[in-house]
Amino acid sequence: MLVAHEAAHQWWGNLVSYRDWTHTWISESFATYSEYLWAHHAHGADEGAVNLLNKKNAYLNEARTRYRRPIVFDRWVYPNDNFDRHTYQKGAAVLQMLRYVMGEAAFFRTLQHFLQQHAYQPVDTHDLMVAVKEATGQNLDWFFDQWVFRPGHPVFEVASSWDAPARTLRLTVDQVQDTTGGVPVFRTPVAIKIVMAEGAVVEQVWLDEPHETFTFSLPGKPLLVRFDEGNHLLKEWTFAKAGDELLYQLAHDDALGRGWAAAHLAALADEPDVEAALKQRAVHDPFWYVRRAALEPLGARKDPALVEFLKARSLDAHAQVRAAALRALGDYEAASLADFLKERFEQDDSYVARAEALRSLGKCGDEAVVPFLEAASATASPRNVVRAAALWALEQVGK
Question: What is the distance between the alpha carbons of residues 305 and 309, in angstroms, rounded to a whole number?
Answer without folding.
Answer: 8
